[in-house]
Amino acid sequence: MAARAVGVAQCAYDAALGYARERRAFGQPIAGFQAIQLKLADMATEIQAARLMTYWAAVRSEAGPVRSEAAMAKYFASEVALRATMEWHNDQSGQPVLRSLTAYDH
Q1: Residue 34: how many CB atoms within 10 A of its CB?
Q2: Is 33 left (phi over 0), alpha (psi -120 to 50) or beta?
């Protein structure tokens, strides 16, 4: 569950990054604007933290049951996936997310 949420978040980040590189405003890609760079950096940081928490829970599971670690990884990764998809959706000016973003495409 946590790994799937990390995958969804990564997919949203990849889509947001691609959109920021393609979309132009004031004669340049919006990826060059500091506000967009900060949003992308925040998304990437959260995704990496969720990925590492998921790895941590997986490694701990080799020693035995890890209910709390797995629960933390699932919770955090799903929250990161939600934030990443909502951020991407907002950057797309409200265009439907599911029409152009599917985790199974990546």
Answers
A1: 7
A2: beta
Mean pLDDT of 53-62: 94
In angstroms, rounded to a whole number, what is the distance separating the alpha carbons of residues 106 and 42?
21
Q: What is the pTM (predicted TM-score) of this model?
A: 0.82
> 6: which 2 tokens?
């990390």
Could you tell me where the beta strands, DSSP code E, fall in the chain?
A: 24-25, 28-29
For residues 92 and 85, the answer to whether their CB atoms sit within 8 Å is: no
Residue 89 C-alpha from the chain's centroid: 12
25 contacts 98 by C-beta, under 8 angstroms: no
Residue carrying structure tokens 């990437």: 44
Mean pLDDT of 52-76: 93
Amino acid at 95: Q
